[in-house]
Write a structure and sequence with these properties.
Elements lengths: L4 H18 L8 E9 L26 E9 L8 E4 L15 H6 L3 E4 L13
Parallel strand pairs: 3-4
Antiparallel strand pairs: 1-2, 2-3
Length: 127
């Protein structure tokens, strides 16, 4: 990291603010997003092994089935629809329309996307 990283960040923020002001970019178009992994079956800290065992593993710790949820909010306070991204190459990777509460999610504006890759990560293509 450069020694002047704070100055670089400040300059970047000023460039963004200048662009927004000079180009009259509406506040609603300035969006902040974050994403997180959601694991289907979270492991626990429980173990089961004979007393004195040399190796003890936790239950469900190797669980890898997950998806990414993306949350975005516009600068004017508008929360954009939640986006869930599933690993896979087709809509078959996403929840079925017959899934419990699927219709509720659609009515709330949720977006179910497949990544078109083997991962469930958010990419520019899924945004």
């Amino acid at each position: 990291m450069p020694e002047n990283w704070e100055d670089i960040c400040e300059q970047a923020a000023l460039r963004i603010a200048y662009g927004i002001k000079e180009q009259d970019i509406p506040s609603a178009l300035y969006v902040n997003s974050d994403q997180t992994q959601v694991v289907y079956a979270q492991g626990s800290n429980l173990t089961w092994a004979p007393t004195g065992a040399k190796q003890v593993s936790t239950v469900g710790n190797e669980e890898k089935r997950a998806f990414t949820i993306v949350v975005s909010i516009a600068n004017d306070g508008t929360m954009l629809p939640l986006q869930a991204i599933y690993g896979g190459l087709s809509k078959k990777s996403c929840p079925e329309p017959t899934s419990l509460h699927f219709e509720d999610c659609i009515k709330a504006g949720f977006k179910f996307e497949y990544s078109n890759t083997s991962t469930y990560w958010s990419t520019q293509a899924t945004m």
